[in-house]
Write a structure and sequence with these properties.
Elements lengths: L4 H13 L3 E9 L9 E6 L7 E4 L4 H16 L6 E7 L2 E10 L4 E5 L5 H10 L3 E6 L15 E4 L15 E5 L4 H12 L7 E4 L3 H13 L4 H4 L2 E2 L11 H17 L6 H5 L1 H13 L2
Parallel strand pairs: 6-7, 6-9, 7-8, 9-10, 10-11
Antiparallel strand pairs: 1-2, 1-5, 2-3, 4-5
Length: 282
């Protein structure tokens, strides 16, 4: 039996909000009679869990073949919604795949001048954004209209009212090194660990932090998980530019990028001129 559109939408929303991932395939063109419009969904409730299948496309053999295609799309961090084609004995089957991964969270610790553009960019990138600070006048809805949550926190126990999990991305941008450090050492001891821990700071400040962590018995394996100084090297100076650098790093980690300039990766001009030189030779 196929999966109705309303049920597919409800399934995608509930699964991704709960930390799972799903792919829904809709047949848009088929050589088989009455297959067009049928849906199939695969659900991974948690990373590594056994897949659950909902709906069907018309035959077990076709469901199996399309499920393998959907699984490949789910495994590829660069895959996106769009048309896919599957060859069958009767001809080409055209599908539209919707790929929905677990909702990611961005927790901005500190509500200062960098936090505002960071919360805005985080929301644009699809993160559920939480901003916390110990100053009620800073973590306000007027300053952070796009944040999912605003939390009045005590930096001695900053995550008391927040659930941290493997989809959490922490950005430590408090008003002082002392508070950043208190938040950092708690984040490093979390189980499961957050997906990302970024901390702003100069080279000197970051080095001092690492020395302090080692003195407190924190191992190199945990220290290596810290992104500090935070963000990609784009020469950022203003709060907005720093937020762009951090957002770029988050995208790079999500999509498996390199952080290199695309001009240097693709080398289109270099290849173009080489082709021209080759054509000019006799």
């Amino acid at each position: 039996m196929t999966l109705p559109a309303a049920e597919a939408a409800k399934l995608m929303m509930s699964v991704t909000e709960a930390g799972g991932a799903t792919v829904v395939a809709l047949v848009v063109d088929s050589p088989y009679k009455d297959y067009t419009g049928k849906r199939l969904a695969i659900v991974e409730s948690t990373p590594g869990a056994q897949l659950n299948i909902h709906g069907g496309l018309g035959s077990e053999a076709l469901d199996k073949k399309v499920s393998e295609l959907m699984w490949d799309a789910l495994q590829d961090p660069r895959s996106h919604d769009g048309l896919r084609r599957v060859e069958t004995d009767a001809g080409t089957l055209e599908l539209y795949l919707e790929v929905k991964r677990a909702v990611q969270e961005l927790i901005v610790v500190g509500a200062g001048h960098i936090a505002q553009p960071m919360a805005h960019l985080g929301a644009l990138l699809g993160f559920k954004v939480t901003v916390l600070d110990d100053r009620p006048d800073f973590a306000t809805r007027e300053r952070f209209p796009e944040a999912e949550r605003l939390v009045a926190a005590d930096f001695s126990n900053p995550f008391a009212d927040i659930t941290i999990h493997s989809r959490s991305h922490l950005l430590l941008v408090t008003r002082g090194h002392k508070y950043d450090y208190e938040c950092l050492i708690r984040a490093l001891k979390m189980d499961p660990p957050p997906a990302y821990i970024g901390m702003i700071g100069s080279r000197r400040r970051v080095r001092a932090t690492y020395v302090q962590l080692l003195d407190e018995g924190i191992g190199h394996d945990l220290i290596d998980r810290i992104h500090a100084p935070v963000g990609l090297n784009i020469g950022a100076e203003t709060p907005e530019e720093i937020a762009v650098a951090v957002a770029a790093e988050l995208v790079m980690l999500r999509r498996g990028g390199t952080g290199l300039a695309l001009k240097d990766v693709e080398r289109i001009a270099e290849r173009f001129f080489k082709e021209d030189e080759g054509e000019g030779q006799t």
